[in-house]
Amino acid sequence: MELTADLGEKIINETKKLINENIIIVNKQAIIIASTDPSRIGHFHEGALLTIDRNEMTILSEEHVRVMKGIRPGINLPITINHEVIGVIGITGNPTEVKPFAFLMQKMTELLIRESIYIQETEWHARAIESFFMDWVQMDHIPGDFQTRSRLIEFQVTPPLRCTIIRMDSHVVPAKKLSDILHILKLKIKGQAILWGDKRLLLVTEERTYPSLEYLKNQLGSFQNYISSTFDLSVSIGVGIISNSLLIKDSYQSALKALSIGDINAITIYEDLLLEICLDEIPLEVRREFINKIIHLLGNEKNLLETLKVYFANNLNSKRTANELHIHINTLHYRLNQIEALTQLNPKSAYAITLFYVLFYFLDKETK
Predict the structure, then answer these.
(1) Residue 142 domain-assigned (yes or no)
(2) Which stretches of the chain score pLDDT less than 50?
(3) pTM of this prediction?
(4) Per-residue burial over 352-368, b = 16 or more CB atoms within 10 Å of its CB, e = otherwise
(5) Closest Cα to residue 328, out of 337, 314, 318?
(6) Where is the PucR C-terminal helix-turn-helix domain (predicted)?
């Protein structure tokens, strides 16, 4: 463990809140790396070298000042982490006056360093997990070091496995909020979950824990409702296919596809998708050309387009459609006749139903 200038400065900023004395932080080479007096930074401190060699408190008097390099009267204490002296904290002043604070400063400094080490290790662990998952979802075969890497991050799963991707439908989700949501996900759903970008979470579950899709969907729905009500966020979820081995690439890709195809604030299961999978493969330019052709046939009449949309949403039920549109049923029939006259398509025919379904599917994708 090496004391850095940044860590030394952090220690100075925290300890100076407790005492009104000059404080220095010295590294193992006896160089001052941080101080309440910036002019001392970078200077050699012979008293600190003595403290490091002896691994004990050193009281520095005016007599020491005359014979030792770079020192002032005060007290030096070793900073010890895991039984190793990594530096020194020095408090300038009358030794008798500053001694009561010395051990408190020493313990506080060591506590701050241990906290810094913990944060570094936690961040390293998080990066190692993210790197592992990034590689894992792209693997076409399981490499020889897979088990070694998984043990390093304390990761263990048993196939069959399923990937789920959770997206927060907001322009910006603060890192702290996303981290809190991840913590809640881990509490509510058993599996391996990690942050996946700035607005997403990736979840890998075992089939033995969630033997049915319905059970998993219910658990995800409970999580979704909790997040929506607690954080006022819309949450969209895509659930992939099952993988019978440790290779989860196809499951991950199908979860991505389900999330892309599904509605906002919905749980979309890839295995439930039928026509949508085919439609989603159609290039954007072709979709837009199709939309423009149908709308052109309707004479760009927005009320006719809206009528069709509500008509199909109500499964071609004329009475419910008229009620929702707040029009007389005869007016609805007139509009449907208009649509047939303009497009040469009977809205009740199988062919027209298919065309109009595709139209509204593409329009919905355009507005998502």
Answers:
(1) no
(2) none
(3) 0.76
(4) beebbebbbbbbebeee
(5) 318
(6) 304-355
